[in-house]
Structure formats: structure tokens, C-alpha cells
Amino acid sequence: MSTTLHFYKYQGTGNDFVMVDDRAQQFDASNHQLVRFLCDRRRGVGADGLILLRLHPQYDFEMVYFNADGYLGSMCGNGGRCTVAFARQMGVIDTETKFLAADGPHEARIDADGTVHLRMQDVLGQQEVEEYGVFLDTGSPHLVRFQPMSTLAELNVYSEGRAIRYNDRFREKGTNINFVEAPVVPSQPWQVRTYERGVEDETLSCGTGVTAVALAASRRGATSPVHLRTPGGDLRVAFEAKPDGSFTNVFLSGPATRVFDGSIEV
């Protein structure tokens, strides 16, 4: 027997999400097939992921994030910014919030122009340098691979990213892969393209990905805040770099926009 599900569609620099107001906790989070259907761009609503907005006794709300493959994911930075905007639309918060996500508590604020500033988790310890690039965990695992100048636009991110994501080093747990081109002059943005696990394809933007890129780029002279450009738009990452190689006060900033809302039979 089918039921009607009301949903909202949000996007943050092209990273798009199906948002569900699940404060009554009626959505079956174990129904992976339903999540895949809703994220399907031909048969469902279409999105890079699905997010449930739920209440939490110790925070303003809880963000429950699913990858497009139907399974619970790790932290999603752009999804977090969109959830903050969604929570404000639903009247759950005003302009500042503390909420819970997969990787723990977060803080955020919304400017008058709609820019959402999301505090990410501290990144502790030295970055792990692999033969493939620089590996960091910014709430989700990310490999940062710096490309030669003027090669990023022509790169086949799907095939190159998939080859790394499923190699012997990363196959078991998976990783996201960010291909990066440094700016010609410091005032220009760092160019980023990302292959996302769970989506298993290139996405227009990845919030935890650009965060990883900004931190890795600090080894190459980038200073806070770092301006980054993805195919879906521009983001900024601010941070404090510590002598031991860790980073604190990490903030991901950018737009989060409501696209539409509707109902679908499920």
C-alpha cells in the first residue's frame, strides 16, 4: 500500500539533496531501496543524497544523511549547510544553531544573504601522505591529489576517481577523491573536482572535500580563508593551523538554496 511523502529539494553549490522533515520519526531509515528510489534522477526525485531532519534532546536537531546508494553516510558538508537552511525554514532554529551529525556535534550560523557558515570537526594529527596524494578525514575520508597546471578541465574524474576508490588501498572502506589545480596567482581560487563514494560518480561540489583540499593546500602556501571553485560554485574554508599539523576552528562557508518542494507516492 503506497503512502504520500512530502519532501523538499535543496542544493549547495550544485550538491543536491532530498530533505525530509522527519521530526515525527516516521521515515523508515532501514529502507535502503526507498532512499535509492528517491535519489534516482530518472525514477525518483533525483539527488546526491537524502537527509532526514530529526529532533534531538540535547541539540537543536539531528541531521541523518544517506548516500544516493541508499545507505547511511558519513558527514556531508554541503548537506550540513543545506540542513541548517532547511531547519530554519521549518522554524526549528533562527540564525544560529548547534546540531548533531554522523561525526558528532556542529555549530553553524546563517547570514542575511543566505550564506551558511558551518563549523567542521577539528582535524587532528599529521596528514597521512600516500603515494596517491594527501589523505585526510574531515568528517568523511578524502584523498587530495594535486594536478599539473591546466590539466584538471580535461581530466576524466569518473574513471580516474573510480580506479583509486576501488584499488587495494581504499576498496574496503572507500574514500572520496579530490583532484585539485592550484591558482596561477594567490588571489585566484583553487579549482576542485571530486569523485564521491556512495554516489560513485563526480559531483558538482563536495563540502568535506573542499575542506580537505583547503587544509592540504595550506602545505602549499594557501592561507585562511581559502577560496575554492567547484563545477557547482564557490566555497570558502577558514581554519587555524597548529604546529603539530592539526587544524582547529575549521569553517566551511557558502550558499544553501531551496529549489522546490513536492509530494511523491512511495
Automatic annotation (TrEMBL):
It comes from Hymenobacter wooponensis. Substrate binds at N15, N67, G77, N78, N176, E196, R197, G207, T208. It is found in: Cytoplasm. It is an enzyme of class 5 (isomerase). GO terms for molecular function: diaminopimelate epimerase activity. This is Diaminopimelate epimerase. The keyword Transcription does not apply. Keywords: Amino-acid biosynthesis, Cytoplasm, Isomerase, Lysine biosynthesis. Pathway: Amino-acid biosynthesis; L-lysine biosynthesis via DAP pathway; DL-2,6-diaminopimelate from LL-2,6-diaminopimelate: step 1/1. Gene3D superfamilies: Diaminopimelate Epimerase, Chain A, domain 1 (3.10.310.10). HAMAP family: DAP_epimerase (MF_00197). Transmembrane segments: none annotated. Its EC number is 5.1.1.7. The keyword Transferase does not apply.
